[in-house]
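One-letter codes give the sequence; backbone shape is given numerically. An example follows:

. . .
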Amino acid sequence: MRDCLARCLRALDPSLEIHAFPNVRAWLDADLQTDEPPLVMAFRSARKGVDEEMQREIANLAKGENPPPVVIVSDAEDFESILGALENGARGYIPTSVSLDVAFGALGLVKAGGVFVPASSLVQQRPAGAQIPARIEPQDLPFTSRQAAVVNALRQGKANKIIAYELNMCESTVKVHVRNIMKKLKARNRTEVAYKINTLYSHAQL
């Protein structure tokens, strides 16, 4: 799976310098010299002992000087697993259920200094009994019809390129919509947009 993902990422962007290692220690021992700060991806194992060892390695990386951003790739999508990874210093959490394009967009977001978690994990935290609609309509919140469409895509964790394709927009237009949405919601990033939207609906439904 590690090698497969590495090949897929190289195919998406041949300019990327990607190396695959069995664990964090092997990567550190390789002492690779790169022009840009590295982005570390780690697979969360289903085996408890291996998983705990990886979490310790990530926590140690986060405590170091100029720590690299770390992204977890995992089959687990529950909120507790995601929160635990973030508490250990991870800057992103990509479940294997998302598409390759979404995963690639998430890596770009983390590389740029953002934080990525799947919107589905935020939905799990809504108050019991609250019903969050599958789609947001323009009249529900102060959004234009196009902004509402972009918000719905953001809640699914879609990258700008995918949103542009599905909504027949230029990618630059999507970026403008995202900035305006963030401004209206006073959100600092895309993840916070999804969180605030779900929270607003949770309160509205109580």
Remarks:
- The chain is about 55% helix and 5% strand.
